[in-house]
Write a structure and sequence with these properties.
alpha+beta; 6 strands; about 20% strand; 4 helices; elongated
């Protein structure tokens, strides 16, 4: 069976393939082991996106930009037809920006059990390298903070597993980078 290029695979497919390689062949590429600190907490597996501008702010920005472009064209002696077209387009975009709906980004439940993996050499206050969702049972087993043996690449969108003693934790969501609200290491 031939493998499709890595770009065609979803993260879930790459994670399952990585898990199979780890289980079947302990000397497979990408199976290097490192001891890394971790922390568990409850939060948003996707992370909080930056706040979207309000309708009024978007409309005001388009109005200002349209006015600047229209006045600039008029002052440099641009053809009246071109000035009218730019003014009309700016007005139309302003109305559209003012009527556009709320932020379309999907929100996820905010209180999911999460695992944060930190660099091998961590100082108190350092932010995690990646954060992923785990099961509630794994949250209980791992405790609040500690060190685990990590196999694979613990990085955003990476594939990895974390051993604590003989217990193996697999990410349930694609790992993401640190976001506002993620706890720094050593601040229990």
């Amino acid at each position: 069976m031939t493998e499709p290029s890595a770009g065609l695979w979803r993260w879930e497919d790459r994670q399952r393939a990585f898990q199979a390689r780890v289980v079947l062949d302990e000397h497979s590429p990408g199976s290097r082991l490192t001891v890394r600190p971790y922390r568990t907490f409850h939060g948003d597996p996707i992370g909080k996106p930056p706040a979207a501008d309000s309708r009024l702010e978007r409309a005001a920005m388009v109005l200002i930009a349209g006015t600047v472009m229209t006045v600039s064209l008029a002052l440099i002696g641009g053809p009246r037809t071109l000035v009218a077209i730019v003014a009309g387009l700016a007005g139309g975009v302003m109305v559209f920006a003012g009527l556009a709906g709320p932020d379309p980004r999907a929100s996820s439940p905010l209180h999911q059990p999460l695992l944060a993996i930190y660099r091998s050499t961590v100082q108190p206050g350092d932010l995690p390298d990646c954060v992923t969702q785990i099961s509630p049972e794994e949250l209980t087993y791992l405790g609040d903070e500690g060190y685990a043996t990590v196999i694979g690449t613990a990085a955003p969108l990476g594939t990895f597993g974390a051993f604590l003693d003989d217990y193996l934790v697999w990410p349930r969501t694609p790992p993401r980078g640190n976001r506002r609200g993620d706890p720094p290491f050593g601040t229990l």
